[in-house]
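Supplementary Note 2. Why include the ligand at all?

Several targets in our set were suspected to adopt different conformations when bound, so apo predictions alone were not considered sufficient. For every target with a known small-molecule partner we therefore ran a joint prediction. The input for zinc ion is given below.
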Amino acid sequence: MSTVTVTLPDGSTLEVEEGATVEDVAYEIGPGLGSDTVAGVVDGELVDKHTPLREDAAIEIVTPSADEYLDVLRHSAAHVFAQALQRLYPEAKLTLGPWTDDGFYYDVTGVDLDEDDLEDIEAEAESIIEEDLDIQRELLDRKEAFERYEDNEYKQEILETEAAGEDPVSFYEQGEFYDLCQGPHVESTGEIGGFALLEISASYWRGDEDNDTLTRVYGTAFPSEDDLEEFLERRRKAKERDHRKIGQEMDLFSVPDHSPGCAHFHPNGMRMRRELEEYVRTKNEELGYEEVWTPELNKAELWKPTGHYDAFKEDGEMFAWEQDETEYGLKPMNCANHAYIYGDETRSYRDLPVRFSEFGTVYRNEQSGELSGLLRVRGFTQDDGHAFVRPDQIEDEIVDTLSVVQDIYGHFGLEVIYKLETQGDDAVGSDEIWDEATDALRSALESEGLEYQVEEGEAAFYGPKIALNARDALGREWTIGTVQLDFNIPERLDLTYVGEDNEEHRPVMVHRALLGSFERFMGVLIEHFNGNFPPWLAPEQVRILPVSDDNIPYCEQLQAELSDFRVEIEERSWTVGKKIQQAHDDRVPYMLIIGDDEEEAEVVSVRDRKEREQKDVQLAEFREHLETEVEQKRTDVTFLV
Ligand SMILES: [Zn+2]
Ligand SMILES: [Zn+2]
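The joint prediction is reproduced in token form.
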């Protein structure tokens, strides 16, 4: 009998008989572990505990305390949903139903569902959990498998693709329900402590818009009811802050039907965007960037030598079309245009770094089902920048960039998570340049005293990078900016500089975006602040509320004295109470309330959006404070503390 060697997470190894299962290995380690085993991770892949080991492998045992247990539980929950659906709607056809980061979904068809139906299905699922049905794996020969799916062309397709080599074919069953499935699963439906269906949307078979439209039902599951409640509470909070909802309430932006994935910025939103633009522009100047502008419309051949054409066009991600026998496209990124400007002149080692920045609008053809407000878009404006540096300048360049990054994110109260992505298998360029560049990124992070995570082998093929993720007020992580080194484009486009030795040398290209894109960053800010923006960003900074119409002329005088700020007067003939309420609803940082007393004494009553109030304030005192607050870009109102 031959044996295989399994390597355990602590590095120790174990010899087991070839064909032994994950569960056998667990029992080998200890009977307690054996009986707790839910599934296994073999060479990085989550598998059923009955999976036989045919060759040497790294293996982890998944018990209910492992992170992967949630994935297993949620996949079982997807089956419970499908069973409940078929009990209520026997005509429903199942397609694919995987687990996801925070739950599961199942794409179904043959049944007309809406949001209201979820409650009944959820109730049926609860009784299936109550029934505590055993979940068992069953192996069928291919003929039987096809017979089961005589009327389901989707499962037939799966049998012919993903499950093409399988014989027998793996099914999982619970009660009267079965599903073509690789598992793994928990032991019984009763293991699911908390189960909820969340929402319903349209999807496409295999995510392709050219295929049939399906109905996607999202749900989630947890080992306990408490965990579920906590999750639902967090989700409710996030929904309240949904940037699409707040964007509408504050009249910041819209994404109408005629421009799917491309936002319109309304005057209020544009006021914020201009503040952000000006801010980044100042930072770019500090960093020595020179602003350029490059066209959105280019011949498609621009992106062929850089490799972008292959990367974007093949995936259908690029907007491109033929006109007058030439292929044109909308730029999916600005790199090629900036590289062109660099290459348009002879550069000397003394000129480097050469840095170009651009608020460059780019277009990528994201699938329509994926689009969402400002966060998933097709058209967006990056605060892009490219620096062309000598290899010996990399570290300084990155140190300067990172120090600006910290400054910027600090003004938004966003915690930045730095991720260093290192060389992968498909890397271009020599190992020496990768080592040198990765060391430069590492020491830049360290000299700035920043903690960072290392993502081994995760870098794109063209160079190592630092990904900048922001953690928002609800603890969610958003990918925002990047600092990316690139050895590939300079090589492919033959970009050079003349060195001290009078020879031609290759520059390294640094791609960086501080905020990422204005669209996405504003989407994140709206949710992070729940619309209560720092005063320097708020579309309306101060609202003056006259107690009666007679006070309006004096209010206009005050507005003129505050002309450096965005100040409106509430002129509707409402009660003061209603005017205050409206200003709160509009999330205006400060209100100045002006009645006859204030007018006579030439003072103002200041109220902030946190409902703090102070009477008899000299306007000059308030104005000076606001000036400081805006100039220092403080994250919240600080006049009345
Ligand atoms: Zn399954
Ligand atoms: Zn770039």
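The chain has 19 helices and 33 strands. The first helix runs from residue 22 to 29. Comparable summaries for the other entries are listed in the accompanying table.
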